[in-house]
Structures are given as C-alpha cells and as structure tokens.
Amino acid sequence: MSNIFYTLRWPSLLSFFILMALFSIANSRIQDTLPPVGRITKPGNANILTTNTIQLSAEAYDKESGIKTVSFFASYTDPNRGPNINERIGDDSIPPYTHLWDCSHLPDQSYRDIRLFCKIVDSAGNHCTTDEIYPVLDRHVELSKNKAISHQTKNKINVDGLFEKTWAAFPYVEFKNDDNDCKGFSCWDKDFLYFFFQIKDDFIFNRVHEVAKGENAWDSMPIASYAAGTPPLVNIDDCLVLYFDANGSFSELPEPDDKFLYIAPTGVFKAVSFDYFKRQIVYNWHHYIKCRTTIQLSGYTVEIGIPWSVLGVMPRNNHTLGFNIKMVDRENAHSQRIISSWTTLPNITNNPSEWGKLVLADKPWGFLSILFISILIILTITLIYVILSVFNNTKKQKTLPASKYGKAIKMAQDYVLIHYRNDELRIEDIAKEVGLNPQYFGRIFKKEMKISFSEYLNNVRMVNARELLLKTNKNITEIAYEVGYFSLQNFQHVFKKSEKISPGDFRKRGNP
Length: 512
Fold this sequence. Notes:
The protein is α+β, with helices and mostly antiparallel strands. Strands 10, 11, 12, 13, 16, 17, 18, 19, 20, 21, 22, 23 and 24 form a 13-stranded mixed beta sheet that branches. Strands 5-4-7-8 form a 4-stranded antiparallel beta sheet, with no helix packed on it. The N and C termini lie far apart (112 Å). It folds into 4 domains: 101 residues, Immunoglobulin-like, CATH 2.60.40; 215 residues, Sandwich (Immunoglobulin-like), CATH 2.60.40.1190; 28 residues; 109 residues, Arc Repressor Mutant, subunit A, CATH 1.10.10.60. Helix content is 29%, strand content 30%.
C-alpha cells in the first residue's frame, strides 16, 4: 500500500514544483519594470577602423527577468543618400554579445559621421539604447598626393572679391563638381594667408545673407523671403569650405589646430575648430578674417585673408599645412546637395589624413637666376671662410655667443606671440622650437630678459587681456579663454596680481 502511495505522490510533487518555478519566472517578468543597462565595448570611441570586417562586442545586464536580445545598429553618411542612414547590423541573445559586421558596402566615414549603438531588450519587454560610439572608418590610409603652392608676395592684397592682375601671376588648383568648376589661387605675406576662388555655377542658391560683421558673422540669418524657423546653416546650400591642418600632422581625428571655414556666396562665413577629445567645438576663430564675395552671372568669387596668428603658424619657406577645398552645390530648396572635394571623397572631408598639402614658397625664380644666385652664394661663403680662417686659425669657440642668445630669444618671443592663446603652452614647447634643452633655455631666457619664461608669457597674455577688456564687449570668461586661460579663477588671480585690480574693476575704470 505504501509503495502505491509513493508512486502516486512523487509525480504530483514534481509537477507542483515545476508549476511553482514557471509561476515564479512569469511573476518576475510581470514585476520587472526596470530597463536593462549596457554598453558597446568594441570598437572604442575614436578607434580607427581600417578593414571591411569589424568585430562588435557589447555588455548587457538585467537583474530581474534577464536579457532577451542585444541588437547592434549603425548610423552613417552616404554621399548619395545623405547623413544619418540607419542600419540594423545584427542581433545576439547569448553572452558574450558579439557580431561580426561586414561594412564593405559603406563608404569611408570621418569622425562623428558614423555612430554605433545597441538596443538591449530584456525578457519583460523593457529596453534601453546604449551611448553612441564614434569610430573612424578609413580603409584607404595612404596620404593624398595633391599639392598646392602658395607663393610669398610683396604686393598688397586688397580683399574686395575682385580678380586683379596680381592673382594672375600665381599658380592655381582646379576641380569640378558636376557641371560646376572651382579654380583657386593662393599667396602669403608675413601677416596673412590669402586665397582667391572663382566658382562657375549657373544657378546660385543660398538662403543666408550678410547681416553683420565681426562676431555676428557666426550666425547665419534667413533672408526675408525665407520661411520663419531655425536659420539655415551656411553649408546646407551653395558654399565653399576650406580645411586647414596647421601643423601638418594629417591625423585621422580632428585636432584643435585643425580648422574649418565655411563661406556662402553672399559673404556670410563661419569658422570652427573641433576637439574630438572634448567632443565639442573648441572656439570660433573667424575674428580678424577678411572675406569678400561677388555674385556674377556665371557664378561667384571668394577672396579671403586669414591672419597667421589665428592659424597658429609662423610662416616660412617650405612650411607645409594640411589643406583641402570642398564645393557644395544646390539648385533649389528641394534638390539634393552635390558635393565635390579637391583631394577626397565628399563624405570624408572631415578626416585630416585625407587632405592634400599647401606648401609655402618664396617668390619663384627662373633657372638662370637660381644658377647665378647659387654661384654667388658659394663664392661668398668661400670668401668668408677664407677670411675667418686667417683671423681664427687656432681659436675655438667654447661658449654660445651672445648673438646666438639673441636669436634664440627672438624666436621664442615670436613663437609666444603666435601661440599664447594655447593654455597648454609650456617652456618645453619653446625650447623644442629653438632647438635647446628646456632647463638650459630657461636659464638663458631669464639671464637675457631678467624675468622667467612663465612671467613673460603671463605678461603677453595680460597685455592682450587689457586690450580686450577696454576695446571689446566680450565677457570676462571669453577674454580669459581667448588669451590662454581655461580657468576663469586662474585668469582673475593672475590679472589681479599683475594689475593690482580685478578684471571687472579694470574695465570700469577704463570705461567710466
């Protein structure tokens, strides 16, 4: 009898426990109202991807009902279809959550043109979207062979948007954008880098106009006939875009010295510099740029003068900048933009490693002139060597001459005047520029100038801060940033120590 009882009892108990387990799972799903959490672990932000097959990985957690699926997504730019093209890459439901992505159908992507993210769903139906990852897709890592020459000029360049005979003496670069044509000239002097562009375009369409100068040029305003709403950006219609890599590093990621200048046919322009570490626009560098345009029946012209100080470059023969030109064409408000670039595919113009080179050169000479000058230089050097040998046959120079000190100090002063706005400027940077050991340079600088390098740098910044306080309406935070102080508190401390008065009181005293 007992055997029959146990035979009947155990299956009933087993069924009971299975039902309880199922009920518990179902109940946990009903009670689970919190979304899961997770992140993409591979690739990392700002990683450079150079192949067509990418390993994607993600982490996903849910303490209640558990993870059901992890879906990988990409949003990218296509030159024919536009930006923000969304694509579901694939799913995974078993940890570790991974997917092997074939991205051969995508064109190369600059930083922030492609975004990777995941959508995570738990068993209760709750979901979340992970933070976006911004890699760079660059499968053509070779540098561009395009090169433009900018010759030094002693003629005064009048920036008025009109083609003058001065420009005809310089070489030019040329490229096409569909049925449009862009021809660009360049020259430079000790203060400015100049450009003149002729753009042939039968239909000019741009919804911004020149409303103001100086700081207001940052804002693109709609013309009266344009519908009310958000003002259009300069670069959504017909425009010219210039790209500069001041130190010629050709990095795949935009750096603070990489600058972008957008110019509309109507004269409105904006200038930005992007820092991928901060993932933001660092500053607007359009101040002191000279820009004029003219609209003609056959197209429009653009003439620009950019101060070397805002580019952070000390101009000299054979100095090379990374450089690119982009032309945007649009026939009307409903047509697609047609984009072409001097050196790259239109969708990766924000990748400095794809840009060409702009080489600074002295005034060109003919072959015979070069030969004559070379012979003259050789004879002069030989004569000087003979004279010095007579008077210094056994004498050896054991110490650095005073004139050498003067040359090093002058180079350092010039470098500071160009780069004082950089808050990370250090004595090591100057010493490297003049070719001396930092400690040794610090000693000779203090010996010659009677103050330390850091004191000299602060003095230069204070001179410019005083001028901005008295001659502009910028707030003190903007002025601090513009003269090289990212910390307002540090700027106020240094200013008060130098001037014995706060920046605000100094402005009030100078503008009663």
